[in-house]
Amino acid sequence: MTRKPKKAALYTRVSTSDQTVENQVAELERVAEFRGWQVIARYSDQGISGAKGRRERPALDAMLRDAEKAKFEVVMCWSLDRLGRSLIDLLQTVEHLHGVAVDLYLMQQSIDTTTAAGKLLFHITGAFAEFERATIRERVKAGMGRARTELAKNGKYVARGSGIVRRSLGRPGAEPEKLVEAKRLLAEGIGILKVAKTVGLGTGTVQRLKRQAA
Questions:
Q1: Is 15 part of the annotated catalytic residue set?
Q2: 1 lies in a domain?
Q3: Residue 79, SS3?
Q4: pTM of the prediction?
């Protein structure tokens, strides 16, 4: 009985617009032909950094959505860093493929989860992902504990990273007076980051105010 060829999808990415994915595609198609896989879809993000998440990489997002629909059985990629440079995003991508029963072939790392040995990758990345989630939870708990202690003692605490002084837990609200003050500072030519830190707003809120003013 003749077996149907495995359906494959290619995912390629280059960081700058003057680079090309042609070499990646050619090599992956050569491997697919050698293995008897049928390439039925090609996804390419061009001029997009690997540090960007799924939402900012339209081809990656489309590939993962089509994987959910079982349009192919294996995703072929030139290298691990083509999928992503952020550990969390990378683990999420690999976990997503595993969750929808789609295999992964990485040419440069010689990883092929269509084989028994290659499937070990999914188990390892799953363990790393759970470790990463547990670590984040512990950091959040530790941070909240520190903030509560400072609030009880001083009535305020300084948010780490932003340096913003806050007087309550949770996401800071955009009180009207803060918005007015932020607009005034922006009008004086003060930068977004400094305004956000001075007033106590998120940088996204300040950026939106600046766009509205423009």
A1: yes
A2: no
A3: coil
A4: 0.58
